[in-house]
Amino acid sequence: MKTDLTATRVIPILGDPVAQVSTPGIWNAQFARTGQDAVCVPISLPAQGLDAFVAWVRLSDNLPGFLTTIPHKAALTEACDRVEPDAQILGVVNTIRRDPDGTLIGEMFDGHGMLDAIEATGARIRGARIALCGAGAAGSAIAIQAIRRGAAGLFISDMVPAQAEALVARLAGLGKTELATGPAEMADAAEILINASPAGSPGMLDAPFPAKVIEAATCVADAVTDPAETVLIALARAAGVRVVQGAEMAAHQGARMRAFLGLEAG
Amino acid sequence: MKTDLTATRVIPILGDPVAQVSTPGIWNAQFARTGQDAVCVPISLPAQGLDAFVAWVRLSDNLPGFLTTIPHKAALTEACDRVEPDAQILGVVNTIRRDPDGTLIGEMFDGHGMLDAIEATGARIRGARIALCGAGAAGSAIAIQAIRRGAAGLFISDMVPAQAEALVARLAGLGKTELATGPAEMADAAEILINASPAGSPGMLDAPFPAKVIEAATCVADAVTDPAETVLIALARAAGVRVVQGAEMAAHQGARMRAFLGLEAG
After folding, report:
1. Which of A126, A183, A266, B200 qualifies as a cystine partner to B224, CB 3.0-4.6 A?
2. Domains in chain B and their CATH numbers?
3. How far is the alpha carbon of A101 from chain B, nearest alpha carbon, in Å?
4. Phi and psi for A174 in degrees, rounded to 5?
5. Low-confidence ranges of chain B (pLDDT < 50)
6. Residue from the list A19, A41, A43 with its beta carbon closest to the beta carbon of B5
7. CB contact (8 A) between residue A59 and residue B48
8. CA A258 to CA B31: how far, in whole Å?
9. How many other C-beta atoms lie within 10 A of the C-beta of residue B124?
10. Is A220 exposed, middle or buried (0-12, 13-18, 19+ CB in 10 A)?
């Protein structure tokens, strides 16, 4: 028996449902491009299966870790042996690394991915005034990264104002970034606009910021991937503002996740 | 969220080690060829992880089931809710189907695969005298299928004679096939020779049957896949005897397994 071989590394992505995730297709294309013997596979799993899933993953030496999407991001934070500091503040993880001894370490990369994508356009986060729509899991991760990277101001709006207020309260004291909340109409001083809400998705097509706010910005980023060209992106493009689409955020986030899992980020 | 989509079907193959298995490569090529949205992935898992593995698989609706290799074939027989009759006699399974309600049904396909491959050459099992070397898991499965398909005689040899004798005792009364055991030298009345022992693998290169037995046969089959051309196969070929290589057995077995899992056998 050839025990000198290394098995293909398998990276499951858990969800319930999971059929909608595009990660396996994107990652597997990246693995093919970079010549990595690895495969990302979707796993449909209800919450009551998480404990068992984590138990065997600890023992499997060809699993560098796994990814998760809705609705397991919070529950898996509990299942990790260690959670990176920002993910701990957020209370959610989307990537769980399995170290060779079976230790599981969780991190949340939505914020890194979005801000890496914005900076890749040449925009600077340090010193910038940022307006963020959406104070859910992705929005919260983006907000922390904006603070970590030295944004001058962060204005957070949400369809549920109390959710934006709760996020601001949770982030207070984390950095020197000036935090504020209010309706998106009040975001007109922001250079960078970020949508981390479902606005722009099928069924809620309206842009999350009014046209005058979009036109006053220098960079507009949207976490929504379906459609690729949201109303927000279209309005920004028409106004000559540089744009970041959801797919670019996903690509940067993917590279971060792969590096965290010990794969070639590529 | 697009919940009308169907997630890629994932078929893990468990082993410890698992890096040596060729099944994922073969199956994934078959899925690509037949246009099936499915992927077979190796999972390295020690025995203590089996219970947890089975627990989450029951809950995951994009897993039609899973495969297993050494050393889990016996332990997983216990984990199934139901084991098909021949696999129950064998006490081993290599394929576990997950029905939509989470029920797990185990079957062992080594015998089907080998005898399908032999019959695909035009050789007939019904009425044939067969000599089998190797009374382990694969050999036992082949022996049962030889009986089920009406072989006239089945002569079983094994490096450990007691193992061959135990198998014959276990198979007694299963059919009308005349059963016998002894050293492979005594197999000279057999029309069909089958190797299900490691003989021919690196480190134990000798053929499992003597030349005069090989030359007297009409069909010689070898379960060994590495090397593809074993000494047994080479000797048979040189003697003008029709041959079945390990890869052919694997291909036929794979088709049976996929059909059992509700995939296109193709």
Report:
1. B200
2. 9-108 (3.40.50.10860), 111-249 (3.40.50.720)
3. 14
4. -80, -25
5. 1-3
6. A19
7. yes
8. 26
9. 15
10. buried
Residue with more model confidence, A266 or A62: A62
Supply the Cα-derived Rg of chain A in whole angstroms: 19
Which residues of chain A make contact with B48, given a CB cutoff of 8 A? 59
Query: CA distances (Å), B216 to each of B188, B208, B213, B232, in order?
Result: 7, 15, 5, 13
Residue A177 has pLDDT above 70, yes or no: yes
Q: Give Rg (Cα) of chain B.
A: 19
Give residue B238's pLDDT: 97
SS (H, E, C) A15-38: ECCCCCCCHHHHHHHHHHHHCCCE
Chain A 210-229, CB below 8 Å of chain B: which residues?
Answer: 226
| Residue A50 or residue B5, greater confidence | A50
Whole-number percent of chain A with pLDDT over 90: 92
DSSP letters for A34-70: HT--EEEEEEE--GGGHHHHHHHHTT-TT--EEEE-T
Q: What are phi and psi of B14, to 5 degrees?
A: -90, 140
In angstroms, what CA-CA distances link A129 with A134, A153, B225?
A: 16, 4, 64
Interchain CB distance below 8 Å, A10 and B52: no
Q: Which of A22, A44, A72 to mutate to test the interface with B (most CBs of B within 10 A)?
A: A44
Burial degree of A162 (CB within 10 A; 0-12, 13-18, 19+)? exposed
Name the nearest CA neighbour of A41 among A57, A51, A55, A52.
A57
Helices B137-148 and B161-171 cross at an angle (nearest 10°) of 40
ipTM above 0.90, yes or no: no
**Residue A94: what residue type?**
N
